[in-house]
Design a protein that fits this description.
This protein has 254 residues and is α/β, with parallel strands linked by helices. It has a single domain (7-245), classed as Rossmann fold, CATH 3.40.50.720. Helices cover 43% and strands 17% of the residues. The strands form 2 sheets. Strands 3-2-1-4-7-8-9 form a 7-stranded parallel β-sheet, sandwiched between helices. Helix 5 links the parallel strand 7 (140-145) and strand 8. Bound molecules: nicotinamide-adenine-dinucleotide. Nicotinamide-adenine-dinucleotide binds at residues 11-12, 14-18, 36-38, 57-60, 85-89, 112, 116, 145, 147, 190, 192-193, 195-198.
């Protein structure tokens, strides 16, 4: 589906990859609802004018996500898509110098990255299913963010990799579930992109990661991710799959 004139909810849209999607899709005529914990999304929405709105949202909360979906319906007349970018990065060895890893920290990563993604998908899909069918019976598109860490998790990434592996694994069953509603589900697994999440990592880690990218030998630009998201909306044969965007990177153990 062409994004122009459609309404798309973007979780994690206040920063990084999500914010790049917000900017690109608004630039191509879409309406967006930024669903994020961070108030930076309000500033971003205000700067973009009437095509963007901000819904303060914790993706793990049913009430918050329902409010964000309702905002899309009230302000823009319905929902056609969702992009799930909200996520956190956490690293801790299973057994470190101070003993076993924190179970609470593991559960928090799974709760935000995996359970939060499912929460957005199920509630957005319920709203998208109300749309009249378009070409081929298509009603909408959901794009989820996995990671190359789903396949090559590094040292300390058990929780993060499990969360992103969960996103990758649920892509096909979600596409099968939602096929009868004319909703496609695609996941994107980014390599390393230049966002606040990656900028927060120590310089040595960033350098090591950049050196592991064969070509182009640099971190990805967030708009390159957003361009693939837009393509996923446009290409109706893309469904139930995980697409890597990583410059041929295969992460080593560290
Ligand atoms: N940047 C990369 O290299 C990279 C690589 C692979 C996957 N990813 C994934 O892409 C997604 C976006 O990452 P990014 O690099 O843009 O990070 P980022 O930190 O710039 O943005 C993440 C956004 O998610 C929001 N968020 C966090 N917890 C939330 C919650 N509970 N509810 C609502 N919003 C919440 C944050 O406020 C922030 O705005 C994440 O899921 C991340 O794991 C990023």
């Amino acid at each position: 589906m062409d994004v122009s004139g459609r309404t798309i909810l973007i979780s994690g849209g206040s920063s990084g990859l999500g914010a790049a999607c917000v900017r690109r899709l608004v630039g191509h005529g879409a309406n967006v609802v930024i669903a994020d914990l961070s108030e930076a999304g309000k500033t971003l929405a205000d700067s973009l004018g009437s095509q963007a709105a901000f819904a303060p949202t914790d993706v793990t909360s049913e009430a918050d996500v329902r409010r964000a979906v309702a905002l899309a319906e009230q302000q823009f007349g319905g929902l056609h898509g969702a992009i799930t970018c909200a996520g956190i990065l956490q690293a801790e060895r299973a057994v470190g110098r101070n003993g076993a890893a924190s179970l609470e920290a593991f559960q928090r990563v799974i709760n935000i990255n995996l359970v939060g993604t499912f929460n957005v998908v199920r509630l957005a899909a319920e709203a998208i299913a109300k749309q009249p069918p378009g070409l081929d019976g298509e009603r909408g598109v959901i794009v989820m963010t996995s990671s190359v860490a789903a396949e090559e998790g590094q040292i300390g990434q058990a929780a993060y990799s499990a969360s992103k592996g969960g996103v990758a694994s649920m892509t096909l069953p979600l596409a099968r579930d939602l096929a009868r509603s004319g909703i496609r589900v695609v996941s994107i697994a980014p390599g390393v992109f230049e966002t606040p999440m990656v900028q927060a990592a120590p310089e040595a880690v960033r350098k090591s990661l950049a050196e592991q990218i064969p070509f182009p030998a640099r971190l990805g630009h967030p708009d390159e991710f957003a361009a693939l998201v837009e393509h996923a909306f446009e290409n109706r044969m893309l469904n139930g799959t995980v697409v890597r965007i990583d410059g041929a990177m295969r992460m080593g153990p560290r």
